[in-house]
Task: inverse folding
């Protein structure tokens, strides 16, 4: 009896499900090889075939950098709001609820304090799953409060940047965060404090044009997109040849060649290199005479 005859006679075919989860295997966008998800997780989110760095959740990334169990999250009471009542295809307030549901976060930056091989540090990381890691009012405030906390406690600062830029739904309120953070970092530097910036894929637009590239040490992940204007913006105004040149120019290796980053490291080596840099560069901070400590 064929399928159509079964359907007409009311006989239903029983489909036995294998019980295998759909995300057991992952396909690499770069080399197109299929990777066992568990293997990818054990390799810090790096493709075992070509070294492509997958985007991993912020907490998972955090755990790769700091001592186990040492991270204490701060400023979770600062959360994104729809102060402009912005609406495009959807209300911004509805988008925020969706991002929160998907990520378990109320803003696109996770901030806190931890230890790295015993050294006390302040750490902030963009969560790409929340609005593309974009910078809004809450994210800017969280980063500024983290800088203030590091300054008060004499802790070096590590920021993992991966963002599509300033968040358009918050307009000028978002853009002002760029200057606000840079002003805090200028004060941070005046006190002889150490700021290490890690640039993951992607670090673009306002974030790359402001605090992401002004670390005392700038470290990029391999092949990370680092630039100002993304492909969706330029594709309608330049030729395909120019577009390809732009793709090449805004990768970490070219950015390193032109002196905007200091070194490129795979994610799996990031912790050991941070530990080495802290042992070489951090002595607790030296406060210049006549400069008063600022706290929030």
Result:
């Amino acid at each position: 009896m064929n399928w159509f005859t079964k359907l007409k006679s009311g006989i239903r075919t029983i489909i036995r499900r294998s019980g295998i989860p759909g995300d057991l295997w992952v396909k690499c966008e770069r080399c197109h090889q299929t990777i066992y998800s568990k293997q990818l997780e054990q390799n810090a989110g790096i493709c075992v075939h070509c070294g492509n760095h997958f985007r991993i959740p912020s907490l998972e990334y955090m755990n790769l950098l700091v001592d186990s169990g040492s991270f204490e999250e701060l400023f979770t009471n600062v959360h994104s709001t729809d102060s402009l009542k912005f609406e495009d295809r959807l209300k911004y307030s509805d988008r925020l609820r969706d991002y929160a549901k998907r990520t378990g976060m109320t803003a696109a930056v996770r901030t806190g304090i931890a230890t790295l091989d015993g050294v006390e540090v302040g750490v902030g990381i963009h969560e790409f799953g929340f609005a593309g890691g974009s910078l809004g009012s809450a994210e800017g405030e969280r980063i500024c409060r983290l800088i203030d906390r590091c300054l008060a406690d004499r802790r070096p600062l590590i920021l993992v940047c991966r963002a599509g830029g300033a968040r358009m739904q918050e307009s000028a309120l978002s853009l002002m965060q760029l200057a606000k953070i840079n002003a805090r970092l200028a004060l941070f530097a005046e006190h002889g404090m150490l700021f290490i910036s890690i640039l993951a894929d992607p670090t673009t637009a306002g974030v790359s044009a402001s605090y992401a590239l002004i670390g005392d040490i700038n470290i990029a992940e391999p092949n990370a997109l680092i630039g100002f204007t993304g492909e969706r913006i330029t594709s309608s105004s330049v030729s395909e040849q120019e577009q390809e040149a732009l793709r090449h120019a805004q990768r970490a290796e070219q950015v390193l060649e032109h002196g905007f980053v200091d070194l490129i490291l795979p994610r799996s080596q990031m912790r050991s290199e941070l530990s080495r840099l802290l042992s070489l560069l951090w002595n607790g901070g030296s406060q210049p005479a006549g400069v008063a400590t600022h706290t929030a």
About this structure: DSSP finds eleven helices and ten strands in the chain. The first helix runs from residue 3 to 9. Confidence is low (pLDDT under 50) at residues 13-21, 287-296. Strands lie at 25-27, 34-36, 72-74, 109-116, 119-126, 157-163, 195-204, 217-220, 226-227, 263-264.
